[in-house]
Amino acid sequence: MSTVHHLSFSDILFTLFLISLPYIIASRFLPSPRQLRDPQRKKSVAIVVVGDIGRSPRMMYHAQSFADSGFDTVIVGYGGSSPLPSLLSTPRVQIVHLVKPLQAPNFPRWLRPLQLGSKAAFAVLKVVLQTLELGWILVFGGRVRNWEITEYVVVQNPPSIPTLFVVQLAALIRGTKVIIDWHNLGYSILAMKLRESHPIVRLAKWIEKTFGRKAYAHLFVTEAMKKYLSKEWNLQGQKLVLHDRAPEHFHPTSPTEAHNLFAQFPTLKPPVTSFLPPNDPPRSTFCTKLVPQKQTLGVFYGTEDIGVASWREDRPALVVSSTSWTADEDFGILLEALRIYEKRAKEMEKGGQRLRKMLVLVTGKGPLKEHYIRQLAQLEEQERWEWVRCRTVWLEAQQYPLLLGSADLGVSLHASSSAMDLPMKVVDMFGCGLPVCALSFACLDELVENGENGMVFQNAGELAVQFETLLSKERWTLERLRSNVLRQRKGWTWERNWRGVVLPVVDKDVGQRNSLGIQ
What whole-number distance in Å separates Cα of residue 463 and Cα of residue 336? Predict the structure, then answer.
């Protein structure tokens, strides 16, 4: 009978000590942090994302803002999704991809028995390899072109393990100033899968608290998170709230932009052709059409007929949601709300009234996606839906804001694991002038004002009622919300927010003032 060995607290600490030994030894032969603080060196920053860079919008916005402010910027993270096109074309930005050593084809053959064996040992191996690679890049400049020691390192949290430990160790050796960007609490996400009293969750919380306590500056996505961590974890360093904001290229979509988007839109599966109004791209799409209009060519050339894009009156209500397809975003709430709306639409039709047809487009990737797609297909077939269709779609980065700006309504199913972070998807929707129905949780009112820029729901029944109210043919309630969103949106951009909160902190420290005249 085999014995199962569980990792103890001391095992983890000893592993971290062994990993840090090479860097501690190397630091004996490197200049001291005091020697490294050259006031004449170029402004520079490393942005650390132990995740898919292209799916980390806030960190990409950080990188763009630093580069626009004159900082040489290195982004360290995993590849996968395409990053913002502007990052790829900005000379000051360099992207360094982390290797995924435990995934095919990089996984060494001699370690494959371990992959099939103990999950705990496999997890420790992954942490060890991540630690070694991150340390190699941050301490020695591995794979970085024309590397110089960066003045700052901005690290996303979560994930906390091994990121916070490695960044703090590298900062100790190289004299770099650490800025921790608190998106959420890593241990709270782990607690959703296990339980908060589980030994692994308690260990994760200890590591996050210990290596996240001290930093040159702490950035928070909400005021609630700042207050909690400042008090409960006794954070040391400057503490600043940097609310998420959409960048400038997120804006309401014009009829012409929408027409071009839907004329080349990905094919929806299963097909929804019979559900949508007839259309014939490029003359018309299910949301837009070209209206003939005469254009004067000049005194001697007369006029010509051109097509001007406009919204179709018979278009379905377009609802957009973005989800990670994980347990902390219950897609079942949206499914049940759509069932209720479908039933209500059929009842009203019998009484001589009509609701608008609704097309729901859902973006995002995640582990539960296939499960819900199967469930959705069964509901549509078994209950013979006539008024609602829900489809998933994957868009390029430049297409996503155009879809948001073309929609009638957005839906957020985000349920914060810590009750202290805010859904980035809602920020993007507001940036495109799109009102939102959002699932309620503790600090949501820092972003969504119920009845002003959106509506808040507790369950599927409330969401279904909101659909009926906002998507009625009169549309006046929805237009009032949209008008409020557009009014709040003025000056409500990431660039302006970042320059007001972050730039004075990092610019002041390098002894220069920015060209915008921030005092």
Answer: 9
SS3 letters across 349-382? HHCCCCCCCEEEEEECCCCCHHHHHHHHHHHHHH
Beta bridge partners of 49: 77
Q: How far apart are CA 364 and CA 59, in angstroms?
A: 18
User: How large is the greatest C-alpha to C-alpha distance in the chain, in angstroms?
Assistant: 97
- The gap from C-alpha 385 to its chain's centroid, in whole angstroms, comes to 32
How far CA 53 is from CA of 37, 86, 158, 215, 227, in Å, comes to: 29, 14, 14, 23, 29
Tokens encoding 380: 């549509």
Q: Which two tokens stand for residue 445?
A: 């009112």
pTM comes to: 0.81
- pLDDT (tens digit, 9 = 90+) per residue, 104-144? 455 555 555 555 555 666 677 788 888 889 989 998 888 88
Helices (H), 158-263: 163-174, 186-193, 199-212, 223-232, 255-263
> What's the rounded Cα separation, in Å, for the pair 198 and 205?
11
List C-alpha distances in Å: 495 to 202, 219, 318.
37, 16, 29
The model's pLDDT over 67-100, given as tens digits with 9 standing for 90+, comes to 999 999 999 999 988 898 899 999 999 999 998 7
Distance from C-alpha of 499 to C-alpha of 513, rounded to nearest angstrom = 12
Residue 152 to residue 154: CA distance in whole angstroms: 6
Cα angle for residues 410, 455, 184 (degrees, 5° grid): 75
Q: Are the CB atoms for 408 and 437 separated by under 8 Å?
A: no
